[in-house]
Design goal:
Layout (H helix, E strand, L loop, with lengths): L1 E5 L4 H10 L4 E5 L16 H16 L3 E10 L5 E2 L12 H12 L6 E12 L2 E13 L15 E3 L11 H7 L1 H14 L2
Parallel strand pairs: 1-2, 1-3
Antiparallel strand pairs: 3-4, 3-5, 5-6, 6-7
Bound molecules: inosine 5'-triphosphate (ITT).
Keywords: Hydrolase, Magnesium, Metal-binding, Nucleotide metabolism, Nucleotide-binding
Subunit structure: Homodimer.
Protein name: dITP/XTP pyrophosphatase
């Protein structure tokens, strides 16, 4: 089976992507290839940060690689936390990040939000970009224990449950990451 490196340290993201690419690609993450650094994400866009991660692997390991940068954009918070999603409250603690969003939105009737993923796929040193977005709303309290990050407060449009109440298979059908990944797979099929 063809191998692809997914430049992430996030085990939840690795599991989601492995499940989505099962049978098609063997997905290796940064730990699997012995890349133990936290690649600096210093760009000010999702696209820029995804590209920093994928290029790092190409430069230092000479392997084809993709990376995603993703996050939550809340309309009433000027699209924050955005690229700062992983450390919105100062650390990588998901609960603290969630509480920060809920506190800043308290009493605000506009609960509109979206998850966004941008994938950078580096193939033969060429960068290919794929984007996925899912619209939804922010609940007033946490619900569910599956998934990761902001899943317990994000309710996708058209659903009555949060991402954290969905099975991974169900989330993988509709999520921002799934949408971007599907575009990448279509592209890979065509080459
Ligand atoms: P890598 O950079 O190592 O891939 P990361 O966790 O830092 O892992 P991102 O830079 O893409 O990943 O940060 C995205 C943050 O946005 C992530 O830590 C979560 O807090 C949030 N996030 C992204 N996708 C999510 C999802 O599907 N469900 C819930 N939260 C998500």
């Amino acid at each position: 089976m063809r191998k692809l490196v997914f430049a992430t340290n996030n085990q939840h993201k690795t599991e989601e992507i492995r499940a989505a690419l099962e049978g098609k690609y063997e997905v290796l993450n940064l730990e699997d290839i012995g890349c133990l650094v936290d690649i600096p994400e210093t760009a000010d866009t999702f696209e820029g940060n995804a590209t920093l991660k994928s290029s790092y692997v190409v430069k230092h390991f000479h392997l084809d690689c993709f990376a995603d940068d993703s996050g939550l954009e809340v309309e009433a918070l000027n699209n924050e936390p955005g690229i700062y999603s992983a450390r919105y409250a100062g650390s990588r603690d998901s609960l603290e990040n969630i509480q920060m969003v809920l506190a800043r939105l308290e009493g605000n009737p506009n609960r509109k939000a979206r998850f966004k993923t941008v994938i950078s796929l580096m193939l033969n040193s060429q960068n290919h970009i794929f984007e996925g977005i899912i619209e939804g709303t922010i609940r007033t309290a946490l619900s569910g224990s599956k998934g990761f990050g902001y899943d317990p407060i994000f309710q996708p449009a058209g659903y009555e449950i949060t991402f954290a109440e969905m099975d991974m298979a169900e989330k993988n059908k509709i999520s921002h990451r799934a949408i971007a990944l599907k575009k990448m797979l279509e592209f890979l099929k065509g080459i």
